[in-house]
Structures are given as structure tokens and as C-alpha cells.
Amino acid sequence: MERWLGKYAELVYAVMRIVIGMLFACHGAQKLFGALGGQSQLSSPLMATAGVIEFFGGVLVCIGLFAGYAAFLASGTMAVAYFMAHASGGFWPIVNRGEMAVLYCFIFLYIAAKGSGRLSVDALMRK
Q1: Structure confidence by residue, pLDDT tens digits, 64-90
Q2: DSSP secondary structure string, 10-60?
């Protein structure tokens, strides 16, 4: 598969970064603004903090501006979310409904390691 898709690796990475960032920002918009079928959770300081990290971190990852730092913070946030909200429900994420937190945690960890990539605001600023 690398023979066919390898030449598009940077483009595929950029699309993944953009989609993941947008999805994460949507979670934050639910918590902060009650958007997209969610309810504003500003009355809880913990949820408000998570909403800020999700919304602004997702936007930064999406556009590729300081994406490595934003993704590292988002990865840690998802690890905390998993252990606070899901881990007590059993060992396996499929059982305790924590799959999304685990996926986000590890995808953001990868983005933190790789950075913004070529198709990003960071790349434009370097030129």
C-alpha cells in the first residue's frame, strides 16, 4: 500500500490533522456554547476548562498553528478524561465506552510528535 499512497503521505496527514482538529473543536463548542446538540457546561470549572482546550486546541490543530503543542495538551486532556470518566467502568475501552477518548489521546500524541506538517499555517510562517 505504501507504494501507492506513500507519495500522498503529507497530504493524507494534513487531511487527518484537519479532520481530527475540527471534530475536537466541535466537542469544545458543545461544552462552551451548547452548539451542535450539546449543552453548555460552563457551570463546571473542569468541563469549562476541557471545553476551552478542546475548542481552541482543535482549531490550532486544524489550521496547523503550534499543532504539536496543542496536540500534546489535547492528548493529556483525553488521558485525564479517560481515567476520570471511563476507566472505573472496566478495563477495556469498548466496555467502559472510552474508545473515543483513547483514540483522541493517541492520535493527538502522534500529531504532537509529528508537528503541523507541510500544509499548515506553521509551514507558511516558515517561508
Answers
A1: 999 999 999 999 999 999 999 999 999
A2: HHHHHHHHHHHHHHHHHHHHHHHH--TT----TTSHHHHHHHHHHHHHHHH
The CA distance from 40 to 31, in Å, is 5
pTM of the complete model beyond 0.85: yes
φ and ψ of 58, to 5 deg: -65, -40
Domain ranges of the chain: 8-117
Q: Is the dihedral of CA 74, 23, 116, 126 positive or negative?
A: negative
Q: Which residue's C-alpha cell is 477518548?
A: 101
Please, is 17 exposed, middle or buried when counting C-beta atoms within 10 Å of its C-beta (0-12, 13-18, 19+)? buried
CA distance 58 to 49: 14
